[in-house]
Amino acid sequence: MLSNHRVKLNELDEGFIRKLKKAHHSEDAVVYFQVLPGQTGDVLTNTQFWELIDKLDWSKENESNELVVKPLTEHLASLSPSHIYQFQEILSKKLFELDTKAHAMNCGENSWRGEDQPFSVDEFLYARACVVANGSQRFEEVLSDPQKMLKDLTFEALLYVAPDAYKKKTGNRFDYLPSNSFETFSNKEGWNT
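-> structure tokens emitted (193 positions)
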């Protein structure tokens, strides 16, 4: 597995990733990056992230989630590979921020009721993805007030947008480990309250 390599975003391309994997003698290595303070270059901003999220086509909601995410996936695939990595990085951070006991206690039928009670970690992840998919305003409302967590709504399809866009863009598998895990219980501080 690769160690934490800090790279400039404009250097993060397929050639660079291949060199990094070759240097570590592992084609299965996961590559991840950190944006360094003061770094300039082709950086996806938080505003641009939300503009991308706004590309979800909710008019297709009754047909399939794949059709809802299709315009977002296609647009993201038209951007650079570094933008795809950055999209996943920002998405992972937002999912991590919602990974708290307070949010889990307010997500509907699957709500957290204690360690000895049934709780689906996957359903809670998909519920957090649904919050992000509902846009910036909803995300900020729910983040600041866990009681506003969407009830019994999930949107797993958002988790596959970056991998699908990357595959479409490069033809390669999306091997990326974000700096914040979005898996349920990753936000230790959020669960210790």
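The chain has nine helices and no strands.
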